[in-house]
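Most newcomers find our protein records easier to grasp once they have seen one. To make this concrete, we reproduce a full record directly below:

===
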Amino acid sequence: MSKLSENLKFLMSEEDIKPPALAKATGIDASTIRKLLRGEGLPYSDTLIKLADHFNCQTDYLLGLTDTPTTQQFKSAPPFCQQLGVILKHFNITKYRLEKQTGLSEKTVNRWHNGKTTPTADSLIRMAQFFDCSVDFLLGRV
């Protein structure tokens, strides 16, 4: 079982909410929530943000990168295509260097940059480790 699955189950039990109610509250498909609860894969950033926003916790907690959920005021996450530019500027890095040093493909990074897709949690974790920052920072939530 993935840490995401464990943490999601814990938060749902604390709130006493079942998958159908969570799906309705977040706008996430119930089948996606059940898949995450079974530990089958990691979500895309938009799903991760919706879950973290619903439970008012860090995305890093949901992903198991921190051990304890902390409640704080989180900003609304901007579209990732905008946030990617902020990240590159903040860390003074080019898209090319990001691709080469993280193993992300040029096609993937360009699709994020053009707003065609959003990163998977796996890609966010890889970037957070590379930049030594939180996933919430990468998503623009803090």
In short: The CA atoms of residues 10 and 19 lie 13 Å apart.
